[in-house]
Design a protein that fits this description.
By secondary structure, this protein is α+β, with helices and mostly antiparallel strands. It contains 6 helices and 3 strands. The protein is flat.
Length: about 150
Amino acid sequence: MLANMANSLIEHKRITTTVAKAKALKKYVEPLITKAKEDNTHNRRVVFSYLKNKVTVTELFRDVAVKVGDRPGGYTRIIKTGNRLGDNAEMCLIELVDYNEIYTNEKEGKKKRTRRAGKKATPAAENTTPSESNETKKDDNTEAAE
């Protein structure tokens, strides 16, 4: 059961299960991820003996190990989600830490900050200097008076 759950966790990056199973899975899968950080034939064979799935082992060594390469441990996170309706079992979500975009500290790129400016001048006023705009206003007022 733990091998199947580990395969699902590596393939889908997060699964929903009971808290007891998640704690057991965490102890099962974290040493495998640690072995995957060093890619050699011996470690691949050891991990394959636990997982029994060639596709999952390949994904673990290619994708997952690259993302967790600098992390010293703690590759999974357990988030409790409440109780199941049928038997009131405590449910949780177990996920690989580096694959959750909400909690990661990495910023993909700095967003450009925009500031709200005050009122913009009208297009006619932009092209003229302040003294010219005052003169045109006076001319308009004199024409209106005549």
